[in-house]
Amino acid sequence: MIARYISLLLPIKLYATKLGFAPKTNLIMTWGGLRGGISIALALSLTHDMYRDLFLVITYIVVVFSILIQGLTVGKLIKKYTNS
User: Fold this and answer.
1) Fewer Cβ neighbours under 10 Å: the N or C end of the chain?
2) Tens of pLDDT, residue by residue, the chain (84 residues)
């Protein structure tokens, strides 16, 4: 999540005035960046020599966390920082 936050800094700064971003857009986009299908597909493409089972379990944990925790709280985060 730190890498996502940092990677969004420059594009958001460049387009903030042009597109009229809400305050804390970077935080909202970082928290709302849900992961899922691509991560699981990449983990499934590993061979057993590459610790596939371990990576698959870790990937599912991250995806479930992302969907449940981040997905269910992103609306509250948006309301908090956009005063809507």
Assistant:
1) C
2) 888 899 989 999 999 888 988 888 888 888 877 667 788 888 999 999 999 999 999 999 988 988 888 888 988 988 888 875
* Domain boundaries defined on the chain: 2-82
Q: Are 1 and 30 in contact (CB under 8 A)?
A: yes
What values do phi and psi take at 43, rounded to 5?
-65, -40
Reported residue count of the chain is 84
Helix, strand, coil tally for the chain in percent (to 5): 80, 0, 20
Which tokens hold the place of 52?
A: 């596939």
Question: What does the block give as tokens for 3?
Answer: 């890498």
Its pTM stands at 0.57
The candidate with the shortest Cα–Cα distance to 33, out of 56, 78, 1, is: 1
Q: Judge contact between 16 and 75, C-beta under 8 A.
A: no
